[in-house]
Every structure is written in structure tokens, then in C-alpha cells.
Amino acid sequence: MRFVPFIAIVSALAASSCISADVIVLKNGNRIVGMNVTEDGGRVTYQTSAGQLSIPKAIVARIERDGFSSSLADGAAIAPPVSAPQIEPAVGYEEIAQKAVHGGAVDYAYIESLESGARTGAANAINKVAAAHYAAAQFFLATGDSESAIEQYQQGLEFAPSNFGLLMNLAVLYLRQSQFTQALNPLQQARTVSPDSADVYKLMGWAYYGADKTGEAIEAWKQAVKLRADPDVVEALKKAERDQALESSYREGETAHFDLKYYGGAAPELARGILSALENDYNDLQSQLDYTPPEQIAVILYTGQAFADITRAPSWVGALNDGRIRIPVEGLTSVTPELARELKHELTHSFVGQKTHYRAPTWLQEGIAQWMEGRRSTSDAAFLVDAAKKGALPSLGALDGSWIQFGDENASVAYAWSLAVIESIIDRGGIGDVNRLLDAMASAPSPQDAVQQSLRMSYGELQQQAIDYLNHAYLGN
Ligand SMILES: [Zn+2]
């Protein structure tokens, strides 16, 4: 499980500008990146891209200045920790699986023969059909083809609508694809089959939470905890209850693709401005990234007081990805150019996360998000080329995972380097190459494999391409 930094944008801003950022370490272990951190009376005040914020000193453990501090790599896109329960749908499964999938392909003729046997309604024959479709689905999952896997589960369920294993596996696949409302159908059926399953309620909670139905999510998770102790669910439940406590005082705005909540203090015209900016961004990203998120995206704006309320909670940093874009807007009354860039940046994370089923490496997430917000390598090109000559640039492999441990300087390089790599890809093959890369990420065994499959390059070759591009595009070499 990873922490999702609440003020995601701040780290991007801090890291990619020349201003040094400090880190405020809270007593609960969470970390806030901010600029110009000062202590004043009972409060710690700091600067973010969204204006000045302050928190009670009582909740701060220490402030880490420069060099020693770490920047939080923002990631809007963390998958819910759901896993398909290990369920064998039939006795003699191994034998059926071997007949259903062999020689690197699904034997549809064999599955059809089982299906015609099952039309008599005999329980044993129906179980065999379920087992065969389950095996076929596992085969497709192993090759990264989630769509075909979903089809297999659905076909199995036509014959065996009460097969718990098929229902739960189908639900997990929908959840991984952010199809929260879709996931509820098999889960409701699974609850009928097995009313005392903690797993069913756990997954239902995820589905409701993802679909922005906090009240229903809380009910489901309470039931899950009643049936079985589960620390993941307890954490999720606490977080949802905090959200709900604030939601009662939120005002709401809704458009076709967004559900925006904001705490009383924010100006309605700011909310309207943000929604209108997000709708434009959405249309642009939809066409550029050739992807449409299946559900409305939740956005929450925080003003100072709400922000402080949340930081007092034991875990204001999202420990789970709920797909919600959370933005501090203290002091703003309209969409400034800076805020507009942040909105586009954060929305890009949602698109990239969902399109890749949350498998995009951090350099890809941050590179595309910066590119989409309009940032270019102009002022960083000379530095990056020089660093490459000295062998001081990190390899892309070192930027695949979380950046949380990076100090400011390393994070700053990581952001700039990631942007340069994306620019070079777009320069060579257009946005189409980025989309091929994202599609490959969704299914390839590793990010390096995805680069190889889609761009026909190793990480080393991609790095060289980026340096060549910087030299050529910015330095006249
Ligand atoms: Zn970012």
C-alpha cells in the first residue's frame, strides 16, 4: 500500500521550479512538501502553488529543510488493493483447464462441447463449463487481455449465474478497470449466493467508494469488518467516514464528466470556473489519449479550514486510490493560469492511471502530465545534457517506482528528465506513440517490456533518444 500525497501538485511545482522546498513531517508520519515554511505562534505556515496554507504546530513533528528533505512524487493513480479470491470453480479443474487451454490458445471447440452438454441443466456439466471459461479467462489475463477475460467470465456466468468464483473474479476485473458501477452487478449476485462473505462486502465498498457513493461504501465496509477483521477495510472505512463528515457541509457542482465537491468557504464562481476548465481538459485528453474514463471523476476542493480538519485526522494522506482529485484552493477566487495547469496535470494522472490499469511507471505518469499541462524542456535542456555527459542522470529504471524517497534535487531532475523522454517520444512518433506505449503498459509484464513492444526500444535506447532530442531541439547540436 502506498500513500497518496494529498497536495500532489505541490511537489511537482516545487520540484520543477528553482525554489527549494521543505518537508513538514507530521506526528502521524505523513509529510507535506511546501515552500517558505515558517513557524509562527501556534501554527506552521507554508506556501503552495494554491496559495498560503497553515496547520497547527501541535500536529507537526519536525521540519526538514533543503537537501535532507524528500519530495513526494504525486501519483493520482493507485489501484485499490483488491485481489481476486483464489477459488477453484470445479472439482477436477486441472484436467478441464488443460483441455480448455493448450498449445498457447483457447480450445473453443472443447468449450462448446461442454456447453452443449450443460444445456441439459446437470449441475456437474454446468460446473465444467464454468471451470473451462475460468481457465480461458486466466489464460487471457496472463497475456494481458482483460477484455477477453471479462468475456470468458460472462459466458461462464450465462451457464452458471451463481458461480461465486466467476462472479468475484469478474468484479475484481471491473474494479481494476475503474468500472465501479459495472462491478456492482456481479457483487450483488455474489451476495445473494454467499450472504456472509466478508470479501463480497469488502469489494462492494470499493465499488461504491469508486462510484462516489460514500454512504453506501461505509455501510458495506462496516458489514465486512463485522464478518472478518481486516486492517485494509478498517483504514478505508475511517477515511470514508472522514470524507462523509465533510461532505455534509460541501456544496456540489456537477457536469457530464465531473462531480465536484467544495467546502463552504470556496467561491461558487471558482467552482464553476474549475468545472468548466476541467470539461475542456477532459475533451482534450479524451481525444489526445484516445481514452474515455468509464465513470464520472470526483473532484474535491479544500479551503484552509477543511484542509486543517483533514490534516488533524490520523491519515489525511490517502492510503488508497479512490480516483478523487483533491485540490487545495485557499485564497483563490478564479482559475488562475497556475491553477489551470495543475488541473490539467492532475486530470492527466486520472486518464493515464485508468488507461494503463494503474501500471504506468512514475516517469511515464509525470512526463505525460507535465507535457499535457504545457510544460516543455526549454530551460532544463542544457542542464540535462550536461548531467548526461557526467553520467549523473538517473536511469529510467530507477524512476519506475515511487519517488517518495528522493530529495528535492533528485526529484527535480526526475521530473525534468521524465518530461524530456516524453517530448522525445512525441517528437519522433507523435502522440500515437504515447498511446501505443500506454496500451502496452496495461498488459506487458514490465514497463521495460512495454517500451520494447510499443516503441521497439530498450530503456537505454530511449534514454539516448531523449538526449539526442534535447541536443537537437534546444541546443542546436
Ligand atoms: Zn504529477
Secondary-structure map:
Blueprint: H1 8-16, E1 21-26, E2 31-40, E3 43-48, E4 51-56, E5 60-64, H2 93-100, E6 101-102, E7 105-106, H3 108-118, H4 123-142, H5 146-159, H6 164-176, H7 180-193, H8 198-210, H9 214-227, H10 231-247, E8 250-254, E9 258-263, H11 268-288, E10 297-302, H12 304-312, E11 325-328, H13 337-355, H14 362-373, H15 381-389, H16 408-443, H17 447-455, H18 459-474
Parallel strand pairs: 9-10, 10-11
Antiparallel strand pairs: 1-2, 1-5, 2-3, 3-4, 6-7, 8-9
The chain binds zinc ion.
Give a written overview of the molecule.
- The protein is α+β, with helices and mostly antiparallel strands and 477 residues long.
- Among the domains are: 247-353, 3-Layer(aba) Sandwich (Glutaredoxin); 359-477, no CATH class.
- The chain has helices spanning 8-16, 93-100, 108-118, 123-142, 146-159, 164-176, 180-193, 198-210, 214-227, 231-247, 268-288, 304-312, 337-355, 362-373, 381-389, 408-443, 447-455, 459-474, and strands at 21-26, 31-40, 43-48, 51-56, 60-64, 101-102, 105-106, 250-254, 258-263, 297-302, 325-328.
- The strands form 3 sheets. It has a 5-stranded antiparallel beta sheet with strand order 4-3-2-1-5.
- It starts with 7 loop residues before the first helix and ends with a helix.
- Residues 1-21, 48-52, 66-79 and 310-321 have low confidence and may be disordered.
- Bound molecules: zinc ion (ZN).
- The site of zinc ion has 7 residues, from helix 1, helix 13 and helix 14.
- Zinc ion binds next to helix 1, helix 13 and helix 14.
